Amino acid sequence: MQAQDGITYGIIMNDTIVNLFTKDQMSAWNENDLHVVEIPKDKLDRIKVGTKYKDNAFIIENYIPTKENILYALLEDNAVKSFFTRESIKQYIDTWHVVEIPQELERFIDIGSVYDTQTQSFILDIEKARQIRMSEITNAYNNAIIEIMGENTPISEMLSWETQEREAKAYLETKDMTQAPSISLMVQTQDRDLEEFANKIIEKAKNYRKVSSFLIGYRQGLIKELETANTIEAILQVQFDTKYVAEFLQGVVIQQSTQSTDSVTNHNVLDKAKESNEDTRQDDISTSADISTSQEAQSEVSTQSAATQKKTTKTKTTKKSTEV
């Protein structure tokens, strides 16, 4: 068989194109040895090595472009075989069984997860989803605590908070420096007023205890909801509401700022602390502002968590209609 000018041909083996050629590459062939077909000019850009050819027709696969910020699952026998994103695959063949994974479900789906073609949804392990959500809530709680304490607060300073608060109370009651050896040494190294320092410790400890008790109660309420949730949808609705927490914390900060202003008015000793910006900066850095005792925080949870959980439930009830 003779090849013609301007025509592209395909060699077929096992119903698949294994080679493409033109007259310049192969001018003739034996029809008894090779199965050769002419490639239509309007399909040249879509037919390549690997294209299927069956019943005298090309089986042309369409390519679907992937989207940004979407995780895809490639399924085989309705189970997840692999994952991919646009960064790894720009487009995929339409004959592949591919589904997009909703962002809120990404962390619940693994290799082997089963996809129900009738409901077009993944069959998720409810206990696994519960544990994952609990971990997320605990991580959010820990991040909130770190933000309150200060990310750069050294552990050694945290360990001294209970001692500092105990000594501050003892000194304010007795005015005896021997009752506060640790904080007395602290103010000496900073050239600070001991009474001012002690009052600051008490003030910060009170605010921290209020905030930590709120967070403990809020987290416990969410965990309780998770423990009783019996569907994936119910589990997904239980979320650590960072906006709600931030609003509460902001209220504490505003209250603390107001109390500090009143304190300056009523106590002349605080006027010295306002003489320079450097003194103000040191208030935040060196007075162990975030002083508390975890034992006392725990003791207050029982009295505050009930009110907190009631407010939390009300807030989340409003949000559930819009959250996934």
Give a short overview.
The protein has 324 residues and is α+β, with helices and mostly antiparallel strands. It has 9 helices and 12 strands. The chain is elongated, with a radius of gyration of 35 Å.
Please provide a written account of the structure:
The protein is of the alpha+beta class and 324 residues long. It has helices at 126-149, 155-159, 161-174, 181-190, 194-228, 232-237, 242-266, 277-286, 294-320, and strands at residues 9-13, 16-21, 35-38, 52-54, 57-59, 63-65, 71-76, 79-84, 91-93, 98-101, 114-116, 121-123. The radius of gyration is 35 Å and the shape is elongated. The two termini are 65 Å apart.
Tell me the Rg in angstroms.
Answer: 35 Å
For the terminal residues, how far apart are their CA atoms?
A: 65 Å
- Which word captures the global form? elongated
Largest sheet: 3 strands, antiparallel
Count of separate DSSP helical elements: 9
Order of helix and strand elements from N to C terminus: EEEEEEEEEEEEHHHHHHHHH
Mean pLDDT: 78
Low-confidence stretches: 258-324
Beta-strand content bin: 15-25%
Oligomer: single chain
Strands, total number: 12
The structure class reads alpha+beta
Q: Reading side by side through the largest sheet, how are the strands ordered?
A: 2-1-3
- The share of residues in helices is 40-55%
